[in-house]
């Protein structure tokens, strides 16, 4: 099993900012659904600095390239910083991202298709219900990368160590797609992200996706302002592999 | 939120005994699916003693009331001890049980129906796929207890702290049953356990169930001998509430 060398590496993270009163429920959502919602850490209420072990001098109000601001589940603004939206009780949640394991796939000669064709990874909202947690519930979102069946065990081995970045695939192939409620084996109709190109002799392989908790929070239609990184504009942390891998 | 007092309490645990070579995959199965598979602990290969913090002087070969022995997923024997089946590389996995939170429901005036009618809890195999982990995959099993909709938030609050005993319900009501793929709202056709009695004005409430990992291991049809407690004859641990609750 190949594990990336244990050094400090820039890693994308999903960012969600909530009122502190929802922090315990969000933490429980992640604890109960760790594959789609791998919680890397949370900030203290009102303190915008990322915990030191995840990144040094990282201010979640300014250090993502772009932010979306939501109210009652609706996008109300996109901003380059959220200094004026920040509240005394704001809490930031940092959720792992599959980009962390893609370097291992590339190093293993199994470059994800969407990187080869310079697109965003295709993502699907599944019919798999999350384990409910307080005010939060919803369905798992997955990302999809096509591989030949002969490569699947190697793909599983390469991504398995990244336990706080979704780890090994949740399902694959036609049976996996059916179990997830996805009827798009060729990657042509994703719910989010880019259209893929599943070649002859390949099958879709599905991983838990960090869009899951964002969608859950949006769908919960909280009356208070909720913020997140704008799609594709994630927060970059400086994390040791130990923080991401088993 | 009511939490049971933090004292040493006898607690039922599900027991699964595997060859050591499957221990890492089983541990990953539990880490990736903690709601149906809350791993309390594992024994060292070849050492039949339960870790001290879970129970003192507890030998997993002799201290459950009855054992089932499986080969290639088939039941081959039921025994009162497994001294003669034990191998140098046998590993025991201890998985939390919903019995742990039922005392809290009773104390809260919300006695589970199956206790009132002296039956086993009804259990269902759902269509919710588990996140695959090495050789192990399968579907979530849930237990069901009926409650009036007005009691559900209280039921959720009472069981939420028991994070290593399935915690709060995963889903409830007609929508929850549909999401899980269960078409038996009245509790008359469970896949395992006893028939329930869902009264007028009540809805089914579903929790993750520790039968899940047992079913996964049986369904994986490992060629080696696998053992478990016989249904209803669990291992009793002496666990502090801290070991079970958040």
From TrEMBL, chains A, B:
List the keywords (alphabetical): Lyase
Extract the SUPFAM superfamilies matched here: PSTPO5379-like
User: Which GO BP terms sit in this record?
Assistant: glutamate metabolic process
Extract the GO molecular function terms from the UniProt entry: D-glutamate cyclase activity
Q: Which domain of life is it from?
A: Eukaryota
**Protein family (similarity comment):** Belongs to the D-glutamate cyclase family.
Write down what this protein is called: Hydro-lyase
């Amino acid at each position: 099993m190949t594990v990336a060398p244990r050094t400090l590496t820039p890693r994308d993270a999903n960012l969600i900012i909530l009122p502190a009163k929802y922090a315990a429920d969000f933490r429980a959502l992640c604890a109960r659904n760790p594959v789609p919602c791998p919680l890397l850490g949370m900030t203290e209420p009102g303190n915008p600095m990322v915990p030191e072990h995840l990144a040094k001098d990282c201010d979640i109000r300014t250090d993502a390239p772009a932010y979306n601001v939501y109210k009652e589940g609706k996008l109300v603004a996109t901003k380059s910083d959220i200094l004026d939206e920040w509240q005394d009780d704001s809490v930031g949640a940092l959720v792992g991202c599959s980009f962390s394991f893609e370097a291992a796939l590339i190093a293993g000669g199994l470059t994800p298709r969407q990187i080869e064709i310079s697109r965003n990874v295709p993502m699907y909202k599944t019919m798999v219900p999350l384990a409910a947690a307080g005010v939060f519930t919803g369905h798992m979102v997955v990302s999809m990368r096509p591989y030949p069946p002969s490569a699947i065990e190697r793909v599983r081995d390469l991504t398995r160590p990244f336990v706080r970045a979704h780890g090994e695939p949740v399902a694959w192939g036609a049976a996996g797609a059916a179990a997830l409620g996805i009827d798009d084996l060729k990657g042509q109709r994703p719910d989010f992200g880019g259209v893929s190109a599943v070649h002859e002799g390949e099958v879709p392989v599905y991983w838990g996706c960090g869009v899951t908790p964002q969608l859950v929070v949006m769908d919960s239609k909280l009356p208070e302002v909720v913020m997140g990184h704008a799609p594709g504009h994630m927060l970059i942390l400086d994390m040791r592999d130990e923080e991401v891998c088993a």
